[in-house]
Task: inverse folding
Protein backbone atom coordinates (compact mmCIF):
# COMPACT_ATOMS: atom_id res chain seq x y z
CA UNK A 1 0.00 0.00 0.00
CA UNK A 2 2.85 2.36 0.88
CA UNK A 3 4.37 1.76 -2.57
CA UNK A 4 1.11 2.69 -4.27
CA UNK A 5 0.86 5.89 -2.19
CA UNK A 6 4.48 6.75 -3.08
CA UNK A 7 3.71 6.22 -6.77
CA UNK A 8 0.60 8.40 -6.68
CA UNK A 9 2.45 11.14 -4.79
CA UNK A 10 5.35 10.97 -7.26
CA UNK A 11 2.93 11.42 -10.17
CA UNK A 12 1.28 14.37 -8.43
CA UNK A 13 4.66 16.01 -7.78
CA UNK A 14 5.79 15.42 -11.37
CA UNK A 15 2.55 17.02 -12.56
CA UNK A 16 2.95 19.85 -10.02
CA UNK A 17 2.85 22.74 -12.54
CA UNK A 18 -0.38 21.34 -14.02
CA UNK A 19 -1.84 20.83 -10.54
CA UNK A 20 -1.04 24.45 -9.64
CA UNK A 21 -2.25 25.93 -12.93
CA UNK A 22 -5.55 24.07 -13.09
CA UNK A 23 -5.99 24.21 -9.32
CA UNK A 24 -5.80 27.98 -9.31
CA UNK A 25 -8.05 28.14 -12.35
CA UNK A 26 -10.88 26.09 -10.82
CA UNK A 27 -10.46 26.21 -7.04
CA UNK A 28 -9.96 28.77 -4.32
CA UNK A 29 -6.40 29.75 -3.51
CA UNK A 30 -6.47 28.33 0.01
CA UNK A 31 -7.80 25.01 -1.30
CA UNK A 32 -4.86 24.65 -3.67
CA UNK A 33 -2.42 25.54 -0.88
CA UNK A 34 -4.07 23.02 1.42
CA UNK A 35 -3.86 20.24 -1.19
CA UNK A 36 -0.18 20.97 -1.78
CA UNK A 37 0.48 20.93 1.98
CA UNK A 38 -1.32 17.59 2.33
CA UNK A 39 0.71 16.13 -0.55
CA UNK A 40 3.94 17.37 1.07
CA UNK A 41 2.99 15.95 4.47
CA UNK A 42 2.01 12.63 2.90
CA UNK A 43 5.35 12.55 1.07
CA UNK A 44 7.16 13.15 4.35
CA UNK A 45 5.18 10.37 6.01
CA UNK A 46 6.00 7.72 3.39
CA UNK A 47 9.68 8.54 2.84
CA UNK A 48 11.95 5.65 3.66
CA UNK A 49 13.72 6.95 6.76
CA UNK A 50 16.93 5.02 6.20
CA UNK A 51 19.74 7.52 5.62
CA UNK A 52 20.49 7.49 1.91
CA UNK A 53 20.71 9.94 -0.99
CA UNK A 54 17.15 9.03 -2.00
CA UNK A 55 15.92 9.83 1.49
CA UNK A 56 17.72 13.18 1.51
CA UNK A 57 16.43 14.27 -1.91
CA UNK A 58 12.90 13.08 -1.15
CA UNK A 59 12.98 14.79 2.21
CA UNK A 60 14.35 18.05 0.81
CA UNK A 61 11.77 18.03 -2.00
CA UNK A 62 8.88 17.41 0.40
CA UNK A 63 10.07 20.07 2.86
CA UNK A 64 10.43 22.61 0.04
CA UNK A 65 6.97 21.74 -1.22
CA UNK A 66 5.51 22.22 2.26
CA UNK A 67 7.46 25.43 2.86
CA UNK A 68 6.32 27.06 -0.38
CA UNK A 69 2.71 26.00 0.13
CA UNK A 70 2.72 27.48 3.63
CA UNK A 71 4.28 30.72 2.34
CA UNK A 72 1.71 30.84 -0.47
CA UNK A 73 -1.10 30.48 2.04
CA UNK A 74 0.32 33.04 4.48
CA UNK A 75 1.02 35.70 1.86
CA UNK A 76 -1.78 34.67 -0.53
CA UNK A 77 0.58 34.93 -3.49
CA UNK A 78 0.88 32.29 -6.17
CA UNK A 79 4.53 33.18 -6.78
CA UNK A 80 5.38 30.89 -3.85
CA UNK A 81 3.87 27.93 -5.69
CA UNK A 82 5.88 28.78 -8.78
CA UNK A 83 9.24 28.93 -7.00
CA UNK A 84 9.18 25.18 -6.34
CA UNK A 85 10.52 24.06 -9.78
CA UNK A 86 13.33 26.61 -9.49
CA UNK A 87 14.23 25.37 -6.02
CA UNK A 88 14.29 21.76 -7.24
CA UNK A 89 16.63 22.66 -10.14
CA UNK A 90 18.93 24.57 -7.78
CA UNK A 91 18.90 21.68 -5.31
CA UNK A 92 19.73 19.16 -8.05
CA UNK A 93 22.51 21.44 -9.26
CA UNK A 94 23.92 21.55 -5.74
CA UNK A 95 23.74 17.76 -5.33
CA UNK A 96 25.37 17.05 -8.70
CA UNK A 97 27.98 19.83 -8.43
CA UNK A 98 29.00 18.92 -4.88
CA UNK A 99 29.58 15.33 -6.02
CA UNK A 100 32.33 16.59 -8.36
CA UNK A 101 34.48 17.28 -5.29
CA UNK A 102 34.09 13.78 -3.88
CA UNK A 103 35.62 10.49 -4.95
CA UNK A 104 32.53 9.62 -7.04
CA UNK A 105 30.50 11.92 -9.26
CA UNK A 106 26.72 11.64 -9.15
CA UNK A 107 26.61 9.91 -12.55
CA UNK A 108 29.18 7.38 -11.33
CA UNK A 109 26.99 6.66 -8.30
CA UNK A 110 24.07 5.99 -10.64
CA UNK A 111 26.27 3.82 -12.88
CA UNK A 112 27.47 1.76 -9.94
CA UNK A 113 23.94 0.52 -9.41
CA UNK A 114 24.46 -1.61 -12.54
CA UNK A 115 28.24 -1.76 -12.97
CA UNK A 116 30.75 -2.26 -10.16
CA UNK A 117 34.10 -2.14 -11.94
CA UNK A 118 34.41 1.36 -13.39
CA UNK A 119 37.86 2.27 -14.69
CA UNK A 120 39.55 5.68 -14.55
CA UNK A 121 38.60 6.59 -18.16
CA UNK A 122 34.93 5.94 -17.48
CA UNK A 123 35.15 7.83 -14.20
CA UNK A 124 36.51 10.87 -16.06
CA UNK A 125 33.69 10.61 -18.62
CA UNK A 126 31.14 10.39 -15.80
CA UNK A 127 32.63 13.48 -14.15
CA UNK A 128 32.26 15.40 -17.42
CA UNK A 129 28.71 14.11 -17.81
CA UNK A 130 27.90 15.22 -14.25
CA UNK A 131 29.17 18.68 -15.23
CA UNK A 132 26.86 18.65 -18.26
CA UNK A 133 23.91 17.87 -15.98
CA UNK A 134 25.00 20.71 -13.68
CA UNK A 135 24.81 23.03 -16.68
CA UNK A 136 21.38 21.69 -17.52
CA UNK A 137 20.09 22.35 -14.00
CA UNK A 138 21.47 25.91 -14.04
CA UNK A 139 19.85 26.63 -17.42
CA UNK A 140 16.62 24.99 -16.30
CA UNK A 141 16.52 27.14 -13.16
CA UNK A 142 17.14 30.22 -15.30
CA UNK A 143 14.35 29.37 -17.75
CA UNK A 144 12.01 28.51 -14.88
CA UNK A 145 12.79 31.86 -13.30
CA UNK A 146 12.13 33.59 -16.62
CA UNK A 147 8.73 31.91 -16.92
CA UNK A 148 7.94 32.90 -13.35
CA UNK A 149 8.82 36.56 -13.88
CA UNK A 150 7.94 37.28 -17.49
CA UNK A 151 5.52 34.66 -18.82
CA UNK A 152 1.86 33.87 -18.47
CA UNK A 153 0.64 31.22 -16.06
CA UNK A 154 0.01 28.90 -19.00
CA UNK A 155 3.56 29.36 -20.33
CA UNK A 156 4.94 28.73 -16.83
CA UNK A 157 2.93 25.52 -16.65
CA UNK A 158 4.01 24.35 -20.11
CA UNK A 159 7.70 25.00 -19.53
CA UNK A 160 7.91 23.63 -15.99
CA UNK A 161 5.46 20.78 -16.46
CA UNK A 162 6.31 19.61 -19.97
CA UNK A 163 9.15 21.30 -21.84
CA UNK A 164 11.70 20.97 -19.02
CA UNK A 165 10.91 17.24 -18.74
CA UNK A 166 11.24 16.84 -22.51
CA UNK A 167 14.60 18.63 -22.42
CA UNK A 168 15.72 16.44 -19.54
CA UNK A 169 14.65 13.33 -21.46
CA UNK A 170 16.39 14.59 -24.62
CA UNK A 171 19.63 15.15 -22.69
CA UNK A 172 19.41 11.70 -21.11
CA UNK A 173 18.56 9.98 -24.40
CA UNK A 174 21.18 11.96 -26.31
CA UNK A 175 23.82 10.99 -23.80
CA UNK A 176 22.74 7.35 -23.92
CA UNK A 177 23.02 7.30 -27.72
CA UNK A 178 26.36 9.14 -27.62
CA UNK A 179 27.69 6.73 -25.01
CA UNK A 180 26.69 3.63 -26.96
CA UNK A 181 27.72 4.91 -30.39
CA UNK A 182 30.92 6.77 -29.53
CA UNK A 183 32.19 6.41 -25.97
CA UNK A 184 31.77 2.67 -25.42
CA UNK A 185 33.84 1.98 -28.53
CA UNK A 186 36.74 4.05 -27.19
CA UNK A 187 36.69 3.13 -23.50
CA UNK A 188 37.57 -0.30 -22.11
Result:
Amino acid sequence: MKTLIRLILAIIVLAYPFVIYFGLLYFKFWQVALVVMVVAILRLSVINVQPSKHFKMGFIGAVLLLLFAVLAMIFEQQVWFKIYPIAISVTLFYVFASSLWTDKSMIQRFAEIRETNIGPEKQLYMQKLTSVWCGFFVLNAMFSTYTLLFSSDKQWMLYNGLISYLLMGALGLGELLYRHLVVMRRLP
User: Anything to note?
Assistant: Residues 1-82 form one domain. The CA atoms of residues 72 and 80 lie 5 Å apart. The radius of gyration is 18 Å. The chain has two domains: 1-82, 85-188.
